[in-house]
């Protein structure tokens, strides 16, 4: 379901899909995917609203997608043998994501 959340970074209300929820001392936080900006952000639970009527039916400007047959790698460093090797990873690391975004720009 698509909701409306207030993005502190963009300083505006945005349509978003809620990815996960976690509890903090001052309330709940939500990890959201902004469907019109293709960005992830964290939002306090007080800054989320249900999307009304016709706005819920509007198509998203951003789509979540994956690169076909591309799997994340990470650099494994062995300090004892003084070697570094690429190996499989569960998630893309921050440097790889940053590099890919620069390539797209």
UniProtKB/TrEMBL annotation:
GO BP: germ-line stem cell division
Q: Record keywords: Lipid biosynthesis included?
A: no
| InterPro entries per the UniProt record, alphabetical | SNase_OB-fold_sf (IPR035437), Tudor (IPR002999)
PANTHER family annotated for this entry? ATP-DEPENDENT RNA HELICASE TDRD12-RELATED (PTHR22655:SF2)
The EC designation for this entry is: 3.6.4.13
* Catalyses which reaction(s): ATP + H2O = ADP + phosphate + H(+)
Q: Gene3D superfamilies annotated for this entry?
A: 2.30.30.140, 2.40.50.90
Recorded protein name is RNA helicase
The molecular function GO annotations come to:
ATP binding; hydrolase activity; RNA helicase activity
Q: Does the keyword Nucleotide-binding apply?
A: yes
- Source organism per UniProt: Vidua chalybeata (Village indigobird)
Superkingdom assignment: Eukaryota
Keywords carried by this UniProt record: ATP-binding, Helicase, Hydrolase, Nucleotide-binding, Repeat
Residues forming the Tudor domain are 3-68
């Amino acid at each position: 379901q698509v909701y409306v959340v207030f993005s502190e970074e963009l300083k505006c209300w945005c349509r978003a899909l809620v990815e996960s929820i976690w509890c903090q001392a001052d309330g709940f936080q939500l990890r959201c995917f902004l469907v019109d900006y293709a960005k992830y952000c964290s939002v306090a639970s007080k800054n989320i609203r249900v999307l009304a009527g016709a706005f819920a039916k509007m198509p998203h400007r951003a789509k979540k997608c994956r690169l076909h047959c591309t799997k994340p790698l990470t650099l494994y460093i062995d300090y004892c043998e003084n070697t570094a090797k690429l190996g499989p990873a569960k998630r893309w690391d921050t440097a790889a994501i940053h590099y890919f975004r620069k390539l797209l720009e």
